[in-house]
Amino acid sequence: MTGDVPPSMSGTCSCYLNGHMYIFGGCDDNGQTNQIYCVDLKDGKYTWRKIIHEVGSAPSPRDKLSCWVHKGRIIYFGGYGHKQLTDTDHRNRSFIVDEASWVGGVFWGWNNEVHVFDPTRASWSEPQTHGRAPAPRAAHASATAGGRGYVCGGRVMETRTSDVHCLDFESWMWSEILPVSSTPVGRSWHTLTAVSDSSLFLFGGLSVDCKPMSDAWLLDVETKKWREVEHPFRNKPRLWHSACPGQDSDVIVFGGSCDYILLIDTGHCNDALVFQTQPYPLIRICEDYIAKNVRDCELLRAQLHLLPTKVLSAVQTRMTFYRPSKKQKH
């Protein structure tokens, strides 16, 4: 990649919008940053561009924040970072100072601020929200579903939570979802992925007692019920990983660590975990069966060319997913 390549960072926040990936915030060798970069993922050039905003004021430097994408704009929430003492307002409790981290007039801490970036105008704005906002937090998870943004868990001072809050993007009204079922344990560094307009998938994270987690849950935001999901990756805990929706409501998890990385780090993970959240349609089942077995079945190989063009293309794409890994070959 070329252009204004961002420095190496952790805890940055990224999203995809109109063919571009945007990254904001994060922590580099000099601490938290509030720079924003973008790269066109469709022109084949992969050239980074550092965005200099033209309107409004950028948020203070921060990392471990989250974002939502709605109607061509990127909405950022929360995180951990530093502010000048003169920029903190103790009255509205939007910034909680980390008592263990301050130098002179600069204080580090958690926030619950909402900032909106409009790429078409290169503008920052801070909408006036209503209702009871979530407590300031970082390393939480968020997802967009049905015109609303959801926040789940994260670190709030010295504890980790599993509370769920919803922000309506039309009225900017906050509300808390109070579950009527058993709930996941409090955690941070987990992921939350929308698999429908009313269903959110939670995976992994670091628990209240600093245990790497491998459990998965589905939340129905309409019935307010959590349901734990059985899956084949119980032996693969993940924290600080990434997740995105896939085909047929799959959730794809990549990267992260399987340890409490602040104490021990035996290496980061580079395998992709694919979670099925609902029954597959018949065409998907057939494509998967052919792709998984075609290399070992001469009859399937001989008849592969008889498939309609679109179906053949889909099967060939699935075959690359099921190809043997280097470990399997040896």
Automatic annotation (TrEMBL):
Gene3D superfamilies: Kelch-type beta propeller. InterPro entries: Kelch-typ_b-propeller. SUPFAM superfamilies: Kelch motif. Keywords: Kelch repeat, Repeat. The keyword DNA repair does not apply. Pfam families: Kelch_KLHDC2_KLHL20_DRC7 (PF24681). PANTHER family: KELCH DOMAIN-CONTAINING PROTEIN, KELCH DOMAIN-CONTAINING PROTEIN 1. This is Kelch domain-containing protein 1 isoform X2. It comes from Betta splendens.
